[in-house]
Structures are given as C-alpha cells and as structure tokens.
C-alpha cells in the first residue's frame, strides 16, 4: 500500500492530546502529509507554542476525530484515555506512553470499554522535551510497538498501524507484558545506569572531567533526561526494571570480586582474569545483536576522519561523503576542549569501508588509525 493510500485512511481528522515532544512531533509529521490535526493540552502556553510551531490547530466545536492520540505523562495516561473514549466513542484511541501494562490494568479495572483502544509506543525521543524540540522525522526508522487484544477490530488496528507507517516507523505487535519487559531492558535500565554513572561526575576533580572523551559522553548522553517524567516511568514499570537491575548487580559483584583479587603487579587469583575477560566479551556479544539504522540486523565498520576545528569543515566532509556515493549509517563526533582538531567516526557497511578510506584520502582527508 502506498503512502498516499495509507494517509487516505486518516482523511478526516486526528486529535492529539498532549503537546510535548512526541505529541508535537506526531502533529508536525501528519501535517506534512496534509492531515487535519487538532491539539489539546492542559497547559495553555504549551498548546499555544505547539500551534505556533505548526503541529496542528486549536479544536473547534463540531470537530469529530477519527483517531485520538494521547501523548501525556504516564501518571495521567489512563485517565485521559478514559476521557477521550467517552468524548469520542466512534474514534480509535491510542497512546504513546512508554509503559503499557499499567494503563491497560487501570482501565480494565474500572470496567472501561476498551474495544476502540489500542495501546502503542513509538521507540523514539530526544534528551530534550517540549514542542520546541519536536521534529517530524523523529520516528523515521524506529520501532512502533502496538498492543492489541482479541477484541480489537481489524479496521482499528489498521488505523494505528497506518499511523506508524505514515510516520516512517516499523509497527511491531506485542502484548503489554512483553512490551514492558522489553523496554525495561533496552530503555529504562539504561536510563538508570546512565544517570548513576553521570552522578559520579558531580564531585569529580576538574582534572578528571577535562579528560572526558567519547566513551563517557556515549554512556551518559541520556542522563540529562527529565527526573519527574522518569520517576513516573520507573514507578509504573518497577518490577521488570528491578529484575534487570538485580541481574546487573550480580554481574557487577562478579567483576568487583575479580578486580579485588587482582594485585597491583598484575597477578591474580585463579579465575579472576577470566571473569573480567568474560564480562567484556559478553558485552561484545550483546552489542553485536543491536540492530543498525532502520532496524537492519547487521554490523558496521568505522572510518575515523580527522577534522580541523574550522567553520564549514564538517559540512564539507559530509558533502563529500555523499559525493563519493557512501551511505553513512551513523556519525559520532569527538572533540577535546582546546584541541584544534576533532574526530568524525563514520559507520559504514563493511564492503565499502576500504573504498571510503581511499576516496576520502584522495580528496585530502586524513584517516585516523584508532
């Protein structure tokens, strides 16, 4: 089915409740496709800002949405789903909360008719929130989990699937339980670990912070997330998160024990070195399972280019990568304070790595042997 045919199913109107990062981003993406989007938010200023950014328009009397998307914090998700189902009984209602089991249990416990409700969750986001950070392409190439049950009408399921496809995502069906266990491992625990590691920097000597490179930046990137929002997310998904944290604590205890058994001169008790090596190797195996861009299940090679700290240099590099016909799968930048040169680490498929190196060197770029 073409993009035009899918968008035609949303020919009437989409209502978005909550104009934060995800709500405003969905609005921007749908508006680009010519879909009529109305916005609602408990905060008048947040609503006005999202309207100003073009994510949709203010509701008017007589509006009848075909699809309602609830994009609010977890602690009010279930109450607003209930409100929207009652206000628009002919509409399909979905939500984008990062926890799916608790809202379903809350609504079921109240006896709410959930025939037209389908929980969903796009695995997309940024470190900063609000409409000011919204982007229409934030969902492109990202998974979009859809939680249906046996009572979900096929036409309602198709509407939510088409929403995900229209926004460039890949729909994935899961039960609420499967979803919550999965995001505990790949999203919620990483947030906790990043925050705890970043907290070690608070009282670190300035000399140590000055040495910070890409390693600590990569592992703490998400530590600037909103504490209030994450308090709600972690509280709503506490049991699966605790299970993973217990396992992680056991692994940490193993490494701590092995390091404690290693002397300053490098000698160690039997098995200590192997325990450390096994821990690092297990990490290699885990990283190897991570999908690449657009969910591709393949590994990439890196080409690290030395980039002078001059205006326009990075832009020229990216332009020339396109000119030599190399598809860049990912990009990481490293630049130490005060340094006159930085490093651009470009991820490419293995079969083009050597050609990329040769073509870039022919154009005068210096390749770092890292």
TrEMBL record:
Residues 302-370 form the ACT domain. It is an enzyme of class 1 (oxidoreductase). GO terms for molecular function: NAD+ binding; prephenate dehydrogenase (NAD+) activity; prephenate dehydrogenase (NADP+) activity. Keywords: Amino-acid biosynthesis, Aromatic amino acid biosynthesis, NAD, Oxidoreductase, Tyrosine biosynthesis. Pathway: Amino-acid biosynthesis; L-tyrosine biosynthesis; (4-hydroxyphenyl)pyruvate from prephenate (NAD(+) route): step 1/1. The keyword Oxidoreductase applies. It catalyses: prephenate + NAD(+) = 3-(4-hydroxyphenyl)pyruvate + CO2 + NADH. Its EC number is 1.3.1.12. Residues 12-294 form the Prephenate/arogenate dehydrogenase domain. It holds the Pfam family PDH_N. GO terms for biological process: tyrosine biosynthetic process. The keyword Oxidoreductase applies. Belongs to the prephenate/arogenate dehydrogenase family. This is Prephenate dehydrogenase. The lineage of its organism: Bacteria, Bacillati, Actinomycetota, Actinomycetes, Micrococcales.
């Amino acid at each position: 089915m073409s993009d035009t045919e899918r968008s035609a199913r949303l020919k009437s109107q989409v209502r978005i409740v909550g104009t934060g990062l995800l709500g405003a981003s969905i609005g921007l993406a749908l508006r680009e496709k010519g879909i009529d989007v109305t916005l609602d938010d408990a905060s008048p200023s947040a609503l006005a800002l999202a309207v100003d950014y073009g994510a949709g328009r203010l509701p008017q009397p007589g509006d009848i949405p075909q699809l309602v998307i609830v994009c609010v914090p977890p602690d009010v998700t279930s109450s607003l789903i209930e409100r929207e189902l009652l206000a628009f009984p002919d509409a399909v209602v979905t939500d984008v909360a990062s926890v799916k089991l608790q809202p379903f249990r809350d609504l079921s416990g109240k006896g709410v008719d959930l025939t037209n409700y389908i929980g969903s969750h796009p695995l997309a986001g940024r470190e900063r929130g609000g409409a000011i950070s919204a982007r229409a392409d934030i969902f492109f190439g990202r998974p979009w989990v859809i939680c249906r049950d046996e009572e979900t009408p096929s036409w309602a399921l198709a509407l939510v699937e088409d929403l995900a496809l229209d926004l460039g995502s890949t729909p994935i069906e899961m039960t609420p339980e499967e979803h919550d266990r999965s995001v505990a491992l790949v999203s919620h625990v990483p947030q906790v670990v990043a925050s705890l590691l970043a907290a070690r920097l608070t009282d670190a000597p300035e000399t140590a912070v000055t040495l910070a490179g890409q390693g600590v930046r990569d592992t703490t990137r998400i530590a600037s997330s909103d504490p209030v929002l994450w308090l709600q997310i972690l509280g709503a998904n506490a049991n699966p998160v605790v299970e993973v944290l217990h396992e992680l604590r056991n692994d940490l205890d193993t490494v701590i024990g092995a390091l404690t058994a290693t002397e300053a001169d490098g000698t160690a008790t039997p098995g200590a070195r192997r325990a450390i090596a096994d821990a690092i190797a297990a990490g290699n195996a885990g990283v190897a399972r991570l999908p690449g861009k657009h969910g591709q299940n393949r590994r990439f090679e890196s080409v690290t280019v030395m980039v002078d700290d001059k205006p326009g240099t990075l832009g020229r590099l990216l332009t020339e990568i396109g000119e030599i016909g190399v598809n860049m799968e990912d990009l990481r930048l490293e630049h130490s304070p005060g340094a006159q040169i930085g490093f651009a680490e470009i991820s490419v498929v293995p079969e083009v790595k050597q050609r990329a190196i040769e073509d870039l060197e022919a154009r005068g770029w210096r390749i770092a042997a890292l």
